[in-house]
Amino acid sequence: MGIPVEIPGLNTLIPEISDGRLVLVESGADPAKSFFVRRVVLSALAAHRPVTFVTSRDRDEVRHLLQREGGHPDWEEGADIREEDSIEDVQRFDSAGGLIAIDSFSYLTVGLPGPDLARLFRSVRDLCRRDHTIVVLATDRGMFEPRAEAVAAHLADGVIQFHAKEGPEGLIRYLRIPKWSDGRFVDRNVYYDFDGKRIAVDLRSRVL
Q: Where are the alpha helices (DSSP H) in 30-144?
């Protein structure tokens, strides 16, 4: 039993994140990535799974966003929200059988040399397998060196990429899923819209 992906349209492509898996959520300067991570956190809490949410932002700000987006008064039960300036070890985050979400992992590890970052990724993967914990890492495109990005994609069980580009009628948003834990991948650009309150995925539209 995993954590459901409760975003209409996207849940057709990836119905859930399976237990014991490591997922990277990557984007540029697009708040949809952080919104997606918070939706996963709220889905885990609704399923009464233990959650550790590590953030590089203000803890109270994140609590406010979760409260606004949660829709029920007891959303915070089971949630451990931590404000951190850096991360060198994930073993201290205890959410066995639940979820560890880190936003933004690339910012919190920006000072780590490449070999140390690779060891940290392997440590995260080992934690997932040992404790049947789901780990979701939000990363900012371009903050890792190319070799570190390759290591991250190789060790992750799933990768979700949020993209945005300027089009004739304004900003065009689309996502890709180049890798997923059950072997599936989405080899096309899937259109989505984001208004700050929800992600709307349109599987009928094609982005070139």
A: 32-46, 59-70, 105-108, 114-131
